[in-house]
Amino acid sequence: MPTQPLPTRWQILRSAPHRPLFLMGMLQVVLVMGLWLVALVGRASPGASPAMLLPPVAAHGFLVLYGIFPFFVFGFLFTVYPRWMEGPTIGPRIYSLVATLLLAGQLIWYVGLYAATGLLALALIVTLVGWGLALMALYRCYRRAPRHGTHEPLLNAALAAGALGVALHLAGIVLDWPQWLAAGREVALWLFLVPVVFLVAHRMIPFFSSSIIMNYLMVRPAWGPPLILACAMAHAALELAGLPQWRFLADTPLAVAALHHSWVWQFRASFHARLLAMLHIAFLWLGIAMTLYALQSVLLLATGTDWLGRAPLHALGIGFLTGMIVAMGSRVTLGHSGHALAADALTWVALLGLNATAITRLTAELMPAYSAGLNVAAATLWLVFLVPWVARYAPLFLRARADGRPG
């Protein structure tokens, strides 16, 4: 009998939606922070790095929000939407095109940062086209599915908000309105990323915990998603209205709700399995970050001084959002590559190192005299701990499943 030819790496990469998108996301984990480290060194040594056409903070904000997370978000949702709702699968032609467009947008953005603002606008247009295609694919799956849960409509809305954030960045670039860039960052963080990552955690952490923790009662508080999403929207509205001293009205209930979820999901019991504990540790940072945001707002109202700077933002961005990417990305990659669902030492250390990165970056805000060095240290720690993680997992997307199954 003739033997079947072995699949090429390109065929393997296109065999499941998470493969190309997660691979690109992991490479961006390194590239985005590597570029930021170069910019930080350039601040300390003028002339050490080429000047950007955008303020470095604005460029960094966009790259973190839209250069890393969307690859993981779409790679995950393209995989789970058909499973959650028993809907039609999303074919390789669609997810390969989405991945290509999102990657092209990022590559053009990198060049445009140093070459021409017209290229920055082109990068955003290409990104919007890819985003729109992804939205249509997911909504088509949603509309044709025989059953729907409570999470998918909220996810659809959050993904649409993500497109709005890109459009606001485009308007800010074309019209040279920095306030639109700032609005785009707020929309991306509070109306897109925080809702999406929370909703995925709300759906998946209890499910994963139930298979590990003995006598586990799977709890998904029904009030959690609407409350946390409403608070996130209120936070963004107060920030955009220039009323940060009143943000505690939204941040306090969000913090309490997040910490309550960590408690009922049995954070302490999760340490029976490192891979599960990684998810719980990352989610705990949401409660920590929102507590810091609430404290910052109260202190601002009481004293007129911002005592915490960007500490809450980096607790949220590094601890919660990136932590969930590392934790969930590891689990999905292991499970869908046919490997045992267990975190090896490298994977565990990557998450712990990311926590050290978050603490270092928070410390930089609390010790202004040492902030320059601590910022460089935080970016360096990110790379020290996440480059090995990427090197461990990225090659799996180019290899057939270890168990011989398709996908």
Quick description:
With 407 residues, the protein is mainly alpha-helical. Helices cover 75% and strands 0% of the residues. α2 runs antiparallel to α4, α8 (178-210) packs antiparallel against α9 and α8 packs across α11 (274-303).
Give the helix/strand layout.
Blueprint (H helix, E strand, L loop, with lengths): L8 H5 L4 H27 L11 H12 L1 H17 L6 H23 L2 H28 L6 H25 L2 H33 L13 H17 L7 H17 L9 H30 L7 H26 L8 H22 L4 H23 L14
Structure, explained:
The protein has 407 residues and is mainly α. It is built from 14 helices and no strands. It has one domain: Cytochrome C Oxidase, Chain A. Helix 2 runs antiparallel to helix 3, helix 8 packs across helix 11 and helix 13 runs antiparallel to helix 14. It is globular. It starts with 8 loop residues before the first helix and ends in a 14-residue tail after the last helix.
List key phrases describing it.
single chain, globular, Cytochrome C Oxidase, Chain A, 14 helices, 407 residues, mainly alpha, 0% strand
Output the structural class. mainly alpha
Whole-number tally of structural domains: 1
Poorly predicted tracts of residues = none
Strand content: under 5%
- CATH fold label: Cytochrome C Oxidase, Chain A
CA-CA gap between termini: 25 Å
> What is the CATH architecture annotation?
Up-down Bundle
- Could you give the count of β-strands? 0
Could you give me the name of the CATH homologous superfamily?
Answer: Cytochrome c oxidase-like, subunit I domain
Order of helices and strands: HHHHHHHHHHHHHH
Supply the CATH class: Mainly Alpha
Count of alpha/pi helices: 14
Largest sheet: none
Q: Helix fraction?
A: over 70%
Which geometry do the CA atoms define?
A: globular
Determine the mean pLDDT: 96
Estimated radius of gyration: 21 Å
